[in-house]
Amino acid sequence: GRVVALIPAAGMGTRLGLPVPKAFVMLRERTLLQRSVSAALASGVVDQVVVIVPADLAAQIDAEYADRPEVTVTVGGAERSDSVRAGLAASGPDTELVLVHDAARALTPPALFADVVHALRDGARAVIPGLPVADTLKRVDTAETVLATPDRSELRAVGTPQGFTAELLRHAHSGGGDATDDAGLVEALGVPVQVVPGDPLAFKITTPFDLRMARLLLDES
Ligand code: CTP
Ligand code: MG
């Protein structure tokens, strides 16, 4: 069956604070989005990429990928989950597996896409990459008073690509609702979500510090 990678790139990048939407910021000669599309295709496990962009950039990005039949461009929405739903609507009815991957995770190694798809092929219906957390985490109240220290060994920092059977992800998104993490909607259905080992290079470029880190990592390679 077909594997489709949805790449939400329709956010404004408010926390990064540059004049251009985050997915269109350059990292060396290529934008974050271009890097994420290349990684998905280089994985060898993705048949179609659906790129989800801001409305005012759709014509330009569509033209950029005009000679790539495996790349489709569609317009996103106000919240990330609206953008994922737009991507689902643009995926063919013959889609068997869907990966959702933040354009902002621009240094994600292609092998991570393959790892997620392999776990789905092994029978999981929802797969997310996760890493152990290095810092001690505290639960706090609105006054920043510590309420609890969760046991770090039970916690994972999760990212993307997140993989699902197409049927499950469509069902999870059918009720609308917002979630920064698609797996959260699947959990709400009571369906098990499997964590596979993540990769630190799949970190999300969110702040100016993250962009500096990404540029330094590229300088090093
Ligand atoms: N995204 C999207 N549609 C939205 C919001 C986010 O497609 N309405 C995408 C972003 O482009 C990004 C990914 O979802 O690739 C993860 O979101 P985030 O890191 O929060 O990016 P932004 O929303 O752009 O950043 P910020 O929250 O700082 O504005
Ligand atoms: Mg955001």
From TrEMBL:
Main EC class the enzyme belongs to: transferase
Keyword Cell inner membrane set for record: no
Keywords, sorted A to Z: Isoprene biosynthesis, Nucleotidyltransferase, Transferase
Catalytic activity: 2-C-methyl-D-erythritol 4-phosphate + CTP + H(+) = 4-CDP-2-C-methyl-D-erythritol + diphosphate
Site residues, Positions MEP for the nucleophilic attack: 152, 204
Pathway membership: Isoprenoid biosynthesis; isopentenyl diphosphate biosynthesis via DXP pathway; isopentenyl diphosphate from 1-deoxy-D-xylulose 5-phosphate: step 2/6
Positions marked as site (Transition state stabilizer): 15, 22
Keyword Iron: no
GO molecular function: nucleotidyltransferase activity
SUPFAM superfamilies associated with the record: Nucleotide-diphospho-sugar transferases
Gene3D superfamilies hit by this protein: Spore Coat Polysaccharide Biosynthesis Protein SpsA, Chain A
EC number: 2.7.7.60
Family the UniProt entry places it in: Belongs to the IspD/TarI cytidylyltransferase family. IspD subfamily.
Reported function: Catalyzes the formation of 4-diphosphocytidyl-2-C-methyl-D-erythritol from CTP and 2-C-methyl-D-erythritol 4-phosphate (MEP).
Identification of the protein by name: 2-C-methyl-D-erythritol 4-phosphate cytidylyltransferase
Organism: Gordonia alkaliphila
Lineage: Bacteria, Bacillati, Actinomycetota, Actinomycetes, Mycobacteriales
Name of the coding gene: ispD
